[in-house]
Amino acid sequence: MSFGKLAFGAFLVAIGGLLLAIQLGFAPPDTVAFALPYWPVILVAFGLVLL
Questions:
Q1: Beta carbons within 8 Å of 35's beta carbon, 6+ residues apart
Q2: Mean pLDDT of 18-47
Q3: Is the pTM here over 0.70, yes or no?
Q4: What is the DSSP secondary structure assignment for residue 25, as one 8-state letter?
């Protein structure tokens, strides 16, 4: 298994965990709105992980 596939899987699990935490009330609903302006940074970081 390549590191890129592992990183992509971990990214998907983290997103799913965040959405589940919001639905269950463990995280405030505006958590996604707080992180939304930083999507370019997250995208660049994810690309660096794949390198």
A1: 42
A2: 87
A3: no
A4: T
What's the first-to-final CA gap in the chain, in angstroms? 15
Long-range contacts of 11-14 (CB under 8 A, 24+ apart): 11/46
Q: What helix, strand, coil percent values describe the chain, rounded to 5?
A: 80, 0, 20
Q: What is the pLDDT of residue 26?
A: 92
How far apart are alpha carbons 3 and 10 in whole angstroms? 10
d(CA 15, CA 42): 12
Q: How far is Cα 20 from Cα 23, in angstroms, rounded to an integer?
A: 5
- What percentage of the chain has pLDDT greater than the value 70? 98
